[in-house]
Amino acid sequence: MARAAAFVFLPSLLLLSLSLLCDATQGEGEVVAAACRATDLVVRQRATGRVVEGKPEYAVEVANRCRCAQSRVLLRCYGLSSVESVDPHAIRPVDDERCVLHGGRPIRRGAPPVRFTYAWMTPFDFPLISSQRLIHFSTARVRSTARLSVASSLQVAATDPQHHPSTCKVYDKTIGSFVPSDHPFRKVIDDFSVL
Fold first, then answer.
1. Under DSSP, is residue 3 helix (H, G, I), strand (E, B) or coil?
2. Vertex 22 angle, CA 17 and 24, to 5°
3. Which of 113, 125, 131, 152 could bridge to 63 as Cys pair (CB 3.0-4.6 Å)?
4. Has residue 2 got a pLDDT over 70?
5. Which residues span the domain enclosing 63?
6. Are residues 59 and 105 in the same domain?
7. How far is the C-alpha of 18 from the C-alpha of 31, rounded, in Å?
8. Are residues 81 and 27 in the same domain?
């Protein structure tokens, strides 16, 4: 039984490690996950020409240029003062300094930008404080001679601002928990240059 499990686990491990979908590049025979940078989250802002209660209105668009989806995006907004209501689904203050973008949901490259308007005396810069990049591994099915199959969906998350691989967490959706740091799959993940 253990032999059959090992027979299924090792090929599936190989397939999972080769099926990196997010920002993977091939070089010197190994797959390396490239980093997202703060500049990959692009904030564009313009005056709309409207005046609300004597304050100019600004339209903001935030797009992700990194191939990795970015979630839990926090921008510096200092409470996001506005004399008009701001769409809380697009941006919402979490404290006196930070705002969460898109309700914390992933912002994917190529997706429509997150848009909102606000009206205030001067425009805000909305610099990035932090975000979480998700590296998704595709579902892999490996069939052994015993017709056993393994399906796994793993995601690796590294958080800002340091991007150290030691901060990576591997979550296995099939078992609903994080993979222990001593798990054999962790060695594969830790060998990736993740974020």
1. helix
2. 65
3. 113
4. no
5. 38-131
6. yes
7. 7
8. no
Burial 160-175 (b: 16+ CB within 10 A, else e): beebeeeebebebeee
The yes-or-no verdict on residue 3 having pLDDT over 60 is: no
Q: Report how far residue 132's alpha carbon sits from residue 127's, in angstroms, rounded to the nearest whole number.
A: 15
Contacts of 26 (CB under 8 A, 6+ apart): none
In a shared domain, residues 109 and 80 = yes
Residue range 44-87, pLDDT digits in tens:
999 999 999 999 999 999 999 988 888 899 999 998 999 999 99
How far, CA to CA in Å, does 37 sit from each of 7, 31, 66, 80, 181?
39, 19, 8, 24, 26
What digits encode the pLDDT tens for the residues 143-184? 222 222 222 334 444 443 344 333 445 555 555 666 565 555
